[in-house]
Structure formats: C-alpha cells, structure tokens
Amino acid sequence: PYGIAPHFVINNREYCVPMVIEESSVVAAASSAAKFWKTRNGIKAEVIDIIKIGHVHFYWQGEPAKLRYFFNEKVEELITECRDITEKMENRGGGILSVNLLDKNHEDKGYYQIEINFDTCDSMGANFINSVLEKVAAKFKFLVKTSVDFYGIEKDIDVIMCILSNYNPDCRVKARVECSIKELGQFPNGIDALKFAEKMERAVRIANVDPFRATTHNKGIFNGIDAVVLATGNDFRAIEACGHTYASRSGQYRGLSECTIKEGRFEMSLEVPIAIGTVGGLTGLHPLAKLSLEILGNPDARDLMKIIGAVGLMQNFAALRSLVTTGIQKGHMRM
C-alpha cells in the first residue's frame, strides 16, 4: 500500500514523503507529528558518516606476528588488484577507505578477518563490496601460497567466505527536534506542556532500561523508517538488522531515540545507522521507486538518509505522544 505523508520540514525544506506500509495509521501519525513540528522550527537532520564494511573471513594456523607482517607488506598490492572494480567508484568520490587485518584468535583459534571500509557514494553498494572482497581474498590467498619461503609463512590460508556486513555503525544519520517547553502547547486530558515533556522524557527513559518496551519502541521507529525504505526501492531487512544490532551495542537491547529537558527546552532525537542508495538496484527500475525519488526531489544518498531518519523520529514522537496522552488506540490507531 502506497501513501504520502505531507508537512515534513527537514533542514528548512518541505517534503511530501512516500511511505509503503500496510498500516495506514502510520502514514497519518507521521504526517501529524511532522505538522506539529512544522511550526516549531521543523526537523534538523545530519549524516554522521557513510562508511560501509565488508570482511574476508579466513583461518590460518601459524604465528600471528608473521601473518601481520606479511599482510602489512602486501596491503597496497591488494588494493591495486581491485582497481578495475573500484576505478569508477573512485571517480565518483568513493571507493576503498581502508584495509585492515583483524586477529580473532582469542575468539576462535586461527580465525582472522580482512576488514575493508568503503564509501559507495549514492549506491547501497552490496554487489560492489562483495566483488572487491572476493578479489582481495583470491589475491591474498595467492600471495600467501607463493611466499612461503621468503616470509616464513608455514601454511596456506583457508578462506571461509567473503561478504559485506549489514552492521554499519559508522553509516549513521541523526534527526532531532527542539523547542521551548512553552511552545509545546496543550494536550488532551488536561495535560499541560511541562507535564507532557516530562512524560515523554520518562517514556523514552523506560525504553532505554526495559528490553520489552524497547522492542516495541523501536518497532514503532522502524514503522516509519521501513515505509520510506520500501517506497524508494531499498532493502528494509538489512536496515532493520543493522538497527537492532546497533540498539544492542551496549550489551542490552535499548531504545534508539533520546529525549531531554534542559533549561526550559524540550529536545527529542534519533541516531540510527541507515545504509541505502539512490542509484542501482530497484531504485532506477521499479516505476514506484522512481516516482518516490522524484516526489522527494531526487535526493542523493545522504539526503535520503536524512529524510528516512526524520520520518523514524516523527513516527516515534507520534506514537509516544499518543501513549502518554490519550492512549494508543484513540490517539494513533483510529487515525
């Protein structure tokens, strides 16, 4: 089901945001929240970074110091080997950012990774990343096999797999809203602005300490995020997997948003990893994905990240606003 959520003012630019979701109340609630903040300076969004990650997973049963020395000697050769794949991406300003050897012996004896960080510009980059990883693995295996005598490498490496990671904690966007508590206005059931702000802050705090509440809290955030990701032909499963891993980075699953009250001001924010593209895949093939990007003004990947982050924040604000005032059935579902 295809819908449009109007009233989104993001970094002083107004958008009507396409959303694909079976729950029509999500579109209505996101639009309602965006309209609320439209008259309160809108939504501010920024991209923190755009680094994506891939790994060559392999085993080697030799002396770690020898392998590291050998890898450091050969790393530039590995990068050069991939130039036929990376040249076009480099011309667009992206490509390989770094190549590192990770020693995982303490977790599993003989287990290592070659970790490569990428900038894939406006593409999600999965095929590009996997192609580079496979070429690096083949070249490294060849170099190890043909350098036994000179470097004292006793054994060949056993490559297990070459694959991008959908956990991209350094490909993040932050969206936030802020106003004075007085500007929040009045709410149903006789709740004034200060009481509303306090209840919102406590609701977010609960999601930060209770995994049961955090799960539903974050599900609501992804109601908004997934709907825009689907509308633009991107991979919502990868983004959800990444987001939920990010929510667990402290060792406990927590809510993804934050809310603060300080010096008479209310602020709510959402910082979440979102790896998407505006070129490649279905973005240029599916007619509704193309239409969605046109409706948004044909944003690049960074701007689309900001839009998606803003929608996730608005959906979270809308759900919590209903929960702490009228209740979810009347304030959200009936929309």
What this model shows, in words?
By secondary structure, the protein is of the alpha+beta class. Helix content is 46%, strand content 23%. The protein contains eleven helices and ten strands. Strands 3-8-10-9 form a four-stranded antiparallel β-sheet. The longest helix is centred in the last third of the chain and has 24 residues, at 301-324. The two termini are 16 Å apart. 41% of the residues are buried.
Gyration radius, in Å: 23 Å
Overall pLDDT level: 94
Number of helical segments with 4 or more residues: 11
Characterize the largest beta sheet: strand count, sense, and whether it forms a barrel.
Answer: 4 strands, antiparallel
- In percent, how helical is the residue content? 40-55%
Topology order in helix (H) and strand (E) letters: EEHEEHHEEHHEEHHHEEHHH
Q: Which spans have pLDDT < 50 for at least 5 consecutive residues? A: none
Structural class designation: alpha+beta
How many strand elements?
Answer: 10
Give the strand order, joined by hyphens, for the main sheet.
3-8-10-9
Which labels suit this protein?
335 residues, alpha+beta, 4-stranded antiparallel β-sheet
What does the secondary structure layout of this molecule look like, with pairings?
Layout lengths: L1 E9 L2 E8 L3 H15 L5 E4 L4 E8 L4 H18 L1 H9 L3 E9 L7 E9 L6 H20 L2 H4 L6 E7 L7 E9 L12 H17 L1 H21 L4 H12 L9 E6 L2 E9 L13 H9 L5 H24 L3 H6 L2
Helix pairs in contact: 1-10, 2-4, 6-7, 7-8, 7-10
Please outline what is shown here.
By secondary structure, the chain is an alpha+beta fold. It has helices spanning 24-38, 64-81, 83-91, 126-145, 148-151, 193-209, 211-231, 236-247, 287-295, 301-324, 328-333, and strands at 2-10, 13-20, 44-47, 52-59, 95-103, 111-119, 158-164, 172-180, 257-262, 265-273.
